Please model this.
Amino acid sequence: MILGLIILILIAIGGAAVTYLIEDEEPLLWRLAAGCVIGSAVFGLSGFVLGFAFAITPAVAAAALAITLLPLLLLLDESRRKAFDRDRVLARGKLQGATGVKFLRFFYYAFFLGLLILFFDRAIIINEQGIFTGGSNNLGDLPFHLGAIYAFTEGASFPPDNPNFAGVKFTYPFIADLITAMFMKLGVGLREAMLIQNVAWAFSLLVVLERLVLKLVGDTFAAKLAPVLLFLSGGMGFVVFFGDYFGQTKGLFELLWNLPKDYTIGDQFRWGNSLTTLFLTQRSLLLGMPIALIAIGAIWRAFAQTENAQESDGLKVSYTQLLPYVLVGLTVGTLPLIHVHSLAVLFVVGLFALGFGPGRWRELLAFAFGTAVIAIPLLAWSMTGSATRTSEFIGFHFGWDKRDDYFLWFWLKNTGLIFPLLATGIYLVWTAARPVREKAKEKKKATKAEREADAVAIKASPTLLLFYVPFAVLFVVSNVFKFAPWEWDNIKILIYWYGMSLPFVALAIAWLWRRSSSWKAVAAVAVIVLTMSGGLDVWRTLSGQINYRVFEPDAVTVANRIRASTRPDAVLLNAPTYNSAVVLSGRSSFMRYAGHLGSHGIDYKPREEDLKAIYRGGAQAEELIRAHGITHVLISPEERNTLSPNEQFFARYSVIAESGQYRVYKVVE
Model:
């Protein structure tokens, strides 16, 4: 664990040095948070490039780490060193001297850090009974990521073939898992590497979102509230919870320690909680989203300055003014291998910003240039020779995942008070656009409390309304079309609409809180309604109530024996399930879980038919084994239960790995 923390700190420090070329006025905490994800992107991309020549080895991981630390040379410049010293002194000052404000600030970050550690500690649990997960939605995603990680650490080539569909390019955005593999090559354990990275990226997301909201609405309370609303997001599922409580005989605390289900996702609800359904399961989004928010902050800076820019200003833009946008763009350029949907969101936001704010077109084009330099080659590489059918990713589908619900009711029950508070926040910002004289007249008649409350809205620039337009458009478009084979995956775009709605929502709650004592109660109720369902699901996870076994001990044992007894380029036949023992071996499967393959746009049906034919045995099986280059066949309880394999046929082959009811046959010489 200590080694993993040291590596992560080095990555964050290297990335933090880059931030001195991106932002002039940000605290040290933001620089370390932004540096963590920027450094992770540099570390992962460096490993990817070096891996082509040398594969993923300890030396390659060490070289990638050295490259990530190169930006520290920037601190040799006196002005940047002074800026760092200033930030360090300011950070120390925030910790020294006991005041109520400082204590609350420290408690805020300490609480979330502790929560994230306890939460992500449940992502993967390894003991003598096997490998478990404490996330109710992580049962399929965990083995998918483990398969990718082991493909990097144990595979025959780099980049490896798709471990889930042997013989085709692995084009899933895999940088997050590659980073874990490189940590392992440097001597960090699998579980420790995943825990350290997940916590660091999630905490970075918290800090980056908080600072972004502060820039957008100019309100500290709203900025602190926004991450709370993101991490504890959920709909009206708490109503079902109280129904469960009154429908049984357990006490409240007994029920809280034995929650029967999730209250943000299931048959009735589809939005889910961001931690339990997105950040725990989709590690790519966990790294991609804070990078995207850093970029959104840069786009906002250019966009917001447009209203004060003179037409001639564009001719006077210097190299130093454009450099931050190029650097942010270069970081964003890594998103094709981190999280493609985040890149798509930024493309839309950038286009709208360019259209609404042409006065700063040079900054926005500098950002686009930086992005294109890295993103275009990566996209070209990803799309060449891929088994993914892009036609599967776009289609008409109204209402996202509403199923049989009425559209408005679906969104109301899944988001609770988000839309009323969003409308209130938009109205508050809209009032800032009224002529100053008109507002001055109204203030003379207003009470002191009302004047203080109105000040919350006035701090937020009306330009923010234009800036929000692309996110509103993304919400509408995501409710009309699907951008993935599985319509629920539109949440990878919708989460950005939700995240960028939070500044308005948090602003509205802050405005209510400052009006009077009675309105404080309304604000408190609003926060409870927005977070109770998500809080229940997060609590259910971090309190250890969920223990789903993903791999039993025999599966772990036979996976180790497969690794020891087969070549790295071996292709194994196994049941198309998410938790085959082959996942842990680092070897490729002829075909794994159909749900994953279908969601990635891969046509798996022909292989599925061939797989079933091979397990039936006979002459056709021998032909298919040769045709597909299959080297080994696994027969375990899963194959026996779902495929009824002809074990008499496979008995002619030698067994190269065995444990309990697991047997691996070598079917080629």
About this structure: Confidence is low (pLDDT under 50) at residues 310-315. The first helix runs from residue 2 to 19. Strands lie at 125-127, 130-133, 395-396, 481-482, 548-551, 571-573, 588-589, 632-635, 654-659, 662-666. DSSP finds 29 helices and ten strands in the chain.
